[in-house]
Amino acid sequence: MPLDPDSVLNDVLNIVKTHNKWRRLETINLIPSENVMSPLAEYIYLNDMEGRYAEGTLGSRYYQGTKYIDKLEGLLANLMGELFHAKFVDVRPISGTIANAAVYAALTQPGDTIMSVPLNSGGHISHKTTGAPGILKLKVVDLPWDNNEFNVDVDESIKLIREVKPKIIILGGSVYLFPHPVKELLEAAHEVNAVLLHDSAHVLGLIAGGAFPNPLDLGADVMTSSTHKTFPGPQGGVVFTNREDLFKVIQRAVFPGLTSNYHHHRYAATAVTAIEMMKFGKAYAEQVVSNARALAEELHALGFKVIAENKGFTRTHQVLIDVSNVGGGSKSAVLLEEANIIVNKNALPWDRGFRDPSGLRLGVQEMTRFGMGKDEMRVIAEFMARVLIRKEDPSSIRKEVIEFRREFTQVRYGLTPRDIGIDINISMLM
Fold first, then answer.
1. Given this model, what pLDDT does residue 428 score?
2. Which of 64, 234, 283, 412 is the most buried (most CB within 10 A)?
3. Positions modified as N6-(pyridoxal phosphate)lysine (predicted)?
């Protein structure tokens, strides 16, 4: 039977409305790689640039009609450069993964070796042969990892760097509890003519607020990032460097190598977010880190096996817990979702595989944006304990979670259209 367009349209609208209400108003979102834009950033995100092309680089395009895109791209690059202390910024990558791939494509040849954090210790798939390095035919060697410090083993890594002589050394990851040793590995990296790349996707907003060390200030050759995790903008990517020689070849890898449309409509919302970080970033980042520590401490007090107790649990937005004793990561994540608490399962360094990992990876940045503080983190920990440790019915807890969220629906640390004289309410079809 052929589809009825009107019926399908109604289904589409209902799905979006239901999703928006559920995720924005009724759930506690603890996914570390997500965030929520401010009302002003969301308002300006929809614009005519969403359907336009501007292939090429700033001031040298292959299309006409790009003069305002040029202005906005240049303004955004300047904002991001000032915020993150970078002389050269490319905002054209459409994701952090594309930003990483551009660096690899620019600075390596097939058969070359790169080094990165082990996947089950927090390394991202875009640093591994399962992602862009594999497509580019690169060899990937794991940096030695110290489980006790929950960080890269500096001494062993220096030895291995000198032995392997990689082209790129990648720090940063998708599980990121403590700053990686940028300064400590830099001399060994440059000794073998390697580029030290820091993937700051998870901590970019914390860097903006001064709550996490800036890798560029520590000497990293290149910094890549997405723009939608602790940095609460639209989905996108960015490359930073203070080396013009590297920047020129990376630019060519972004275009024509990996992209031809940069999703320009996101530029304005990203610029608004950068301005918000200049205005509110310090208070936001400090509250995020404080909230993460409070959540970790309360989870520990309630009986959860929180990783890195000996290190104070975390210095970022993330908390990592071992739930192998209460059903494992997959089962625990499903049970929490039934209670409207959104988390993601995650492998721990001692896991043998990734199909049913032992851990849960939590992030507090979105709930912080909605105004939650340390007291609310303790409430969240209690909800989680009731589901996973005391084995209460998740559906009954879901009702309490929905009631709890009703007090936290307005985005903080950001701007609204009314702040600039535009009288409009952002409803997101809810």
1. 62
2. 234
3. 229
Cα 254 versus chain centre, distance: 20
Euclidean distance between CA atoms 398 and 381, whole angstroms: 14
Q: Is 244 annotated as a binding residue?
A: yes
At residue 61, what is the residue type? R
In DSSP terms, which residues pair with 71 in a beta bridge?
A: none
Extended beta strands in 36-117, E state: 56-57, 60-61, 88-90, 113-116
Residue 119 marked ligand-binding: yes
Q: For the full predicted model, state whether its pTM sits above 0.85.
A: yes
Rounded to 5 degrees, φ, ψ at 171 are -110, 170
Amino acid (one-letter) located at 295: L
Strand-pair category, 318-322 with 359-363? antiparallel
Per-residue model confidence (pLDDT) at position 398? 98
98: its two tokens:
């594309």
Strands 56-57 and 60-61: antiparallel
Tens digit of each residue's pLDDT (9 = 90 or more) over 178-187: 999 999 999 9
pLDDT of residue 170: 98
Arithmetic mean of pLDDT, 356-383:
97
Residue 343: pLDDT band with limits 50, 70, 90: very high
123 appears as a binding residue in the annotation: yes
Find all residues with CB under 8 Å of 191, minimum gap 6, and list them. 161, 162
Cα 345 to Cα 323: distance, rounded to the nearest angstrom? 10
In degrees, to the nearest 5, what angle opens at C-alpha 373 toward C-alphas 369 and 378? 125
Give strand pairing partners of 168.
114, 195
Burial (CB < 10 A; 0-12, 13-18, 19+), residue 48, is exposed
Contact 216, 86 (CB under 8 A): yes
**Across-strand partners of 385?**
none
Nearest to 231 by CA among 251, 259, 253, 201: 201
pLDDT at 353: 74
Per the annotation, does 329 bind a ligand? no
Tell me if 382 sits within 8 A of 247, measured CB to CB: no
**Of 190, 249, 257, 259, which Cα lies nearest the Cα of 219?**
190
Measured between alpha carbons, how far is residue 76 from residues 81, 84, 275 in Å?
A: 8, 12, 10
Based on its alpha-carbon atoms, the radius of gyration of the chain, rounded to whole angstroms, reads 22
Enter the tokens of residue 1.
Answer: 């039977």
